[in-house]
Amino acid sequence: MSEQFAVNRALFDEVMVPNYAPANVIPVRGLGSRVWDQNDREYIDFAGGIAVNCLGHCHPALVNALTTQANKLWHLSNVMTNEPALRLAKKLVDSTFAEKVYFANSGAEANEGALKLARRYALDVYGEHKQDIISFGKSFHGRTFFTVTVGGQAAYSDGFGPKPGAIHHAEYNNLESLKALISANTCAVIMEPIQGEGGIIPATAEFIQGVRELCDEHQALLIFDEVQTGVGRTGQLYAYMQYGVVPDILTSAKSLGGGFPIGAMLTTTAIAAHLKVGTHGSTYGGNPLGCAVAEAALDTINTPEVLTGVTHKEQLFRQELAKINAKYDVFSAVRGQGMLLGAALSEKFKGRSRDFLLASADLGLFVLMAGTDVVRFAPSLVIPDADILEGMARFEQAVAKVVNG
């Protein structure tokens, strides 16, 4: 039966819960780092679905993995295992510190699993007193009630009734603030190696090493939330690798599936033993479709060519942003690493990141915000240099538009 209604932006307001305020543009197809809307207008994508589309749109390796698996097997539930899940887990274990993997559908679910595991491990090994979780201000760990409370942005967790307890927040990049909170009752410290939603703020090497040492001193597990930084985003397979610090638990999602929903929690055999049969689960976690796509994404990205390419592309982005800034003086700093960069707005333009986002969209470019003071870029890890240059030309026009009112 043919549709008897117009599929447009107005339909969103009619049928969707109003927790999002999407753009008026409705994209209908994408290829590489370009996207086309309902009117066949072309955009360059520097947003990557919020650091998800690590290989751009419709990458042949991902399309092939999805269609091949779609013709074999979609879903079984974890009453049985499946080949794509086993292959993906083996490759993750072989490429990282981890010995065991748990699959979920999203970053929030991977973090939920990590936090539950940390609590269960501490309970089993040390007893009921050891249940405190320490996170950091401005952190973001997902939208389940547990993960959003652990996240350091109260605005996201307020207004839903009593919050999960024994959760504390230290100041990011301030070791003294963590020292003041950590104790024999701390079961875990969770942190992003680069704070994403909090403004693209990298941890200093001293801070990350200090956090590891404090965790060891107090027998607390260190959880790295690498949902946004993982799978090549920083030019390493995982960001922890450049710090010389190994977490006890690591969470991964976003780029892991290249656009297909999947999350993973990675840990050691000794810690994993505490999620014994029946303690945690997921109906769709580790489904054959998701794992087949993620395996193809991992195989494609985890190569010297792609990872060194990310570092080259970062330099190109920085060079072009510096040229724009020399002309318009809108940024106080460009923070981040690899294809996760944040242009922090100067004093004069503070609070206006959305204006830059909207102006960019008007000129055929998708960018992101990281709070009201930072324009965030999280494009495909294999975005062609030509698309970076063309996108930056459009961004310069957007900047000029904002500056000139």
Description of the molecule:
The protein is an alpha/beta fold. It has 2 domains: 150 residues, Aspartate Aminotransferase, domain 1 (Alpha-Beta Complex), CATH 3.90.1150.10; 229 residues, Aspartate Aminotransferase, domain 2, CATH 3.40.640. Helix content is 40%, strand content 18%. A 7-stranded mixed sheet has the order 4-12-11-10-7-5-6, sandwiched between helices. Strands 1-2-3-15 form a 4-stranded mixed sheet. Helix 3 runs antiparallel to helix 12. The radius of gyration is 21 Å and the shape is globular. The N and C termini lie far apart (48 Å).
Average pLDDT value?
Answer: 97
| CATH topology call of the largest domain | Aspartate Aminotransferase, domain 2
Separate helix tally: 15
| Sheet with the most strands: spatial strand order | 4-12-11-10-7-5-6
CATH-derived architecture of the largest domain: 3-Layer(aba) Sandwich
Distance between the termini: 48 Å
Q: Which regions contain 5 or more consecutive residues with pLDDT less than 50?
A: none
Percentage of β-strand residues: 15-25%
The CATH homologous superfamily name of the largest domain equals Type I PLP-dependent aspartate aminotransferase-like (Major domain)
Shape: globular
Structural class: alpha/beta
| Helix content, binned percent | 25-40%
Number of strands: 17
Number of domains: 2
Largest sheet: 7 strands, mixed
